[in-house]
Structure formats: C-alpha cells, structure tokens
Amino acid sequence: MVPPLPPDLSPQSYLLLGLAHCFWKEEGDLTELPIIEPIPTAALGPLLQGIPTSYAVLRATTLGEATQVMAEYFPDAQPCSDFWERAIAAARTYQREPQATTYLAVGQERRDLNFSLERKRILNSRRLVRDSDNIRQHPHTHKQL
C-alpha cells in the first residue's frame, strides 16, 4: 500500500525498481535473500554502463503501481528496509532528471545487466575495527620543521 505522498509527487511519478541478490549471514552460513530496491538516477548510469552489480533485473513502474508490480513480478522477494522513503527519494531524482526515464519506459524490464555475485552484499555484516587496523605514522608527520 502506497503511503501518503508529498505534494511534489503523484501516484504517476516514475520509479525504477531493482531486484538485488543479497545475503544474510548466520553462524558462518550465507542465505540468499532477493530484495527489491528503488534505484535513483545516480545509480542507473553505472548500471547501464556495465558495472558489476547484484541487481539481476530492473523494472520501471510508478509510485502508485509499485506494490502491484512487486507482487506480480517479484513474488519471492521482499522490499528493502525503508522502502517507501527510498522510493519517494528515488522518484524525486527522476523528476529532477526526466531524461533518465527514457532508458526504461514504464512497464519495461531490463535483464542485460552485468550481474555478479563475486562481491556478495551481506545485509547484516558488521565491521569490526581493531587497534591493529590503525596506520602507524612517521614520528615527524605532524611536527613543524
């Protein structure tokens, strides 16, 4: 269900959805999770240029049709966290750069991406910072000579 939209957007506002193959790590085991994410214009260019990505499919829709499209085309996937906030933000990027909507018309899909799982997107990863990660600097680095 679409939440109330801000006054600068309408249910007909363009939205690009991506089906990302992500992973969840538990006790050393990885479980694949298909996630639906809104794609802003800043991410669209690199995706179309062939950058390796975890996105397998891009589908163009509108804010008003997003829920129906997710259920129909991505039934086994779940929306990302903060989906509607990110969808509204992504839709605004297409309002600012309407030429980006010409790459994929509403209702169209692209699967010719450089899909790769070489660098897995682990959703619950935590970075552990240790003292040994610090870079030792030369003693004269911060001294005025």
Structural summary, described in words:
With 145 residues, this protein is of the alpha/beta class. It has a domain at 14-109. Helix content is 21%, strand content 26%. It is built from 3 helices and 6 strands. Strands 1, 2, 3, 4, 5 and 6 form a 6-stranded mixed sheet that branches. The termini are far apart.
Record keyword descriptors for this entry.
alpha/beta; six-stranded mixed beta sheet; single chain
H/E element sequence: EEHEHEHEE
Largest sheet: 6 strands, mixed
The shape, in one word, is globular
Cα-atom radius of gyration: 20 Å
As residue ranges, the low-confidence spans are: none
Number of helices: 3
Mean pLDDT reading: 88
SS class: alpha/beta
The amount of beta strand, in percent, is 25-35%
List the helices and strands and how they pair.
Blueprint: E1 14-26, E2 29-38, H1 41-49, E3 55-62, H2 66-73, E4 78-79, H3 83-96, E5 109-110, E6 121-122
Parallel strand pairs: 1-6, 2-4
Antiparallel strand pairs: 1-2, 1-3, 3-5
Describe, in short, the structure shown:
The chain has 3 helices and 6 strands.
